[in-house]
Amino acid sequence: MRRSHAESHLIDRIGWLRAAVLGANDGLVSTASLIVGVAASTAATGEILVAGTAGLVAGAMSMAAGEYVSVSSQSDTEQADLSRERRELEQDPAAERAELAAIYVGRGLDHELALKVADQLMAKDALGAHARDELGISEFTTARPIQAALTSAATFSAGAALPLLVAAISPANLVVTLVSAASLMFLAVLGALGAKVGGAKVLRATARVAFWGALAMAVTAGIGHLVGKAV
Fold first, then answer.
1. Sign for the pseudo-dihedral over CA of 188, 192, 198, 202
2. Which domain holds residue 46?
3. Is residue 16 one of the residues assigned to a domain?
4. Cα(4)–Cα(12) distance, rounded to whole angstroms?
């Protein structure tokens, strides 16, 4: 006797994975770059920590607000499309049946079978069938503004806390070197974890985040050094 089993797919994680990876990466890169830039201007340790803490708080709030607004816009668009689809199903179900069947024909079913599939799916959940197969909206991809906002804020804070902690325990003359090295290591780990959870190639993801992190810190260190000399 064959036993049914629940499968876990990587697409199930897309909602929170995107926000989590983006938040942690942004928190780590932006805060490390800020600390390195301020430290390169020969600022005192206290000034470096104040700048890093301010960057953490401001960045977390910005990420939360930005994710909430952008994902809310996506959610509004989805709801508008669903409302229109609901009206069309009420006003002309035959046309909607033909439209759904045409989608299945395009995927390889013959016309008669496509009509039967459309009939059975619409009998069970007409709006759900059209949302999934016509609009591309499913439970895995549905926009969740609050989840995205909270995830982004939390992961940004976690990412930003790492270089801030390194700066707090580093000698003033080694802040730039130690924060840069530690941040690149953290970025490599973050890239590898994100790739592992998302089912992507680990080496490529690790190299990608490390490269852009190194570039960001190099640019801000250079600017901080020039500004420090100027003032």
1. positive
2. 22-230
3. no
4. 19
- List, in order, residues 6 or more apart from 96 with CB less than 8 Å away: 85, 88, 89, 122, 126, 130
Task: Calculate the average pLDDT of the chain.
Answer: 81
Domain presence at residue 15? no
pLDDT band at 56 (very low <50, low <70, confident <90, very high): very high
pTM of the model: 0.68
Q: For residue 12, tell me if it sits in a domain.
A: no
- Residue 193 included in any domain: yes
**Number of domains forming the structure of the chain:** 1
Would you give the distance in Å from CA 14 to the centre of its chain? Answer: 8
Inter-residue contact 167 to 40 (CB < 8 Å): no
**Token pair for residue 224?**
């901080």
Q: Which residue matches tokens 């668009």?
A: 77
Mean pLDDT of 158-183: 91
Nearest CA to 148 among 225, 47, 75?
A: 75
Q: What is the pLDDT of residue 53?
A: 94
CB atoms within 10 A of CB 135: 15
Alpha helix stretches (DSSP H) within 4-110 = 14-40, 45-91, 93-106
C-alpha to C-alpha distances, 177 to 34, 40, 112, 180, 182, nearest whole angstrom: 14, 10, 69, 5, 9
